[in-house]
Design a protein that fits this description.
Blueprint lengths: L2 H33 L3 H9 L5 H4 L1 H13 L1 H10 L1 H21 L5 H31 L2 H26 L3 H27 L5 H6 L3 H22 L3 H23 L9 H4 L3 H28 L10
Helix pairs in contact: 1-2, 1-4, 1-7, 1-8, 1-12, 4-5, 6-7, 7-8, 8-9, 8-12, 9-11, 11-12
């Protein structure tokens, strides 16, 4: 495998990992006012992502850093073309992070209300904008960007609701399951529209035609989304979360497959890549560092695997 191909695959893996992990973070943040009735509920909901949300953001830093090092022209063009939405994404992430960190340090209910508002808004902004950015990158259409943003937003809501149902007990879990079923009414049709458009666009399609791989990823993502809804209805929280995570991962696989071999219009990965020496050094660094990152996050999720019980407010 050529190093350019290898590093494109690594970057696709990092972006997809970010969306899978931060996707439920965004969903939990957006659903905070929906799933909570009092302070004990809010602590229980936020406790599901408390130990992991900041570690999940490392995947974004790693993905963007890998783009900068391996494909500097792609990095520059991507950030320049989508400068405003990416700045808004960063604003949302900062506001959400401040809300999550400060919420446990303030003592007045009004201050916690502002923190909760920051968490909710700071989760919704990137959840919508990342979908809009990648849809616009594929289709170069404002309507496609809107559809992509709606799909990304509703998928994060469903992913987050299923995660809360998996990680909690009592009334919060029951509300999370009901919310997941309600959100699926929007996520499923949005997913069909957004995912069915991926195999018909992108530079790979323009050069070779719609491949069975692209159709396979898109259809499998739709099936996983539907399976997540059905499994939630049956109370199989663990399998439901596996299904929604698979839907996010398969969507990422379809998107980056459609972007190969030209991630930006008129720019191929070969033209965007760093020199062979740089890619060689990066490969050794990646082969050493990436397993440790994945292993550490796997261990952290294992440590915090148990369901949470509401504490007295």
């Amino acid at each position: 495998m050529e190093l350019t191909t290898f590093w494109f695959a690594v970057i696709a893996f990092l972006w997809t990992g970010f969306f899978v992990l931060e996707g439920f973070d965004f969903g939990v943040g957006m659903l905070l006012p929906v799933l909570s009735r009092d302070e004990a509920d809010r602590k229980q909901v936020l406790g599901t992502i408390g130990p992991v949300w900041d570690g999940n953001e490392v995947w974004l830093i790693s993905a963007v850093g890998a783009m900068f090092a391996a494909f500097p022209a792609w990095y520059a063009g991507f950030l320049s073309e989508f400068y405003l939405p990416i700045v808004l994404v960063l604003v949302g992430l900062i506001v959400r992070g401040v809300g999550l960190e400060w919420r446990g340090k303030v003592h007045h209910a009004s201050d916690r209300t502002w923190c909760d508002l920051g968490i909710t808004a700071g989760s919704a902004l990137p959840a919508f904008l990342w979908g809009a950015v990648f849809a616009d990158l594929l289709h170069d259409s404002a309507l496609a960007a809107l559809i992509g943003g709606v799909f990304s937003l509703t998928l994060c809501l469903l992913h987050g609701a299923v995660f809360v149902a998996l990680k909690t007990s009592g009334p919060v879990r029951a509300r999370a399951r009901r919310t997941a079923m309600a959100v699926s009414a929007a996520a499923l049709p949005a997913g069909v529209v957004a995912l069915s458009g991926i195999p018909a666009t992108g530079t790979a399609v323009a050069e070779w035609g719609a491949s069975p791989w692209l159709w396979g990823c898109a259809l499998a993502a739709m099936a996983a989304l539907a399976a997540g809804t059905a499994l939630t209805w049956r109370g199989r929280d663990g399998w439901a979360f596996t299904a929604t995570a698979s839907s996010v991962a398969l969507t990422g696989a379809a998107v980056f497959s459609a972007l190969w071999p030209a991630p930006l219009p008129g720019l191929t990965v070969a033209e965007a890549a760093s020199g062979p020496y740089t890619l060689g050094v990066l490969t050794w660094i990646g082969l050493i560092a990436l397993p440790f990152v994945v292993g550490y996050q796997t261990w952290s999720y294992w440590v915090f695997r148990r369901r949470l019980v509401a504490e007295p407010s």
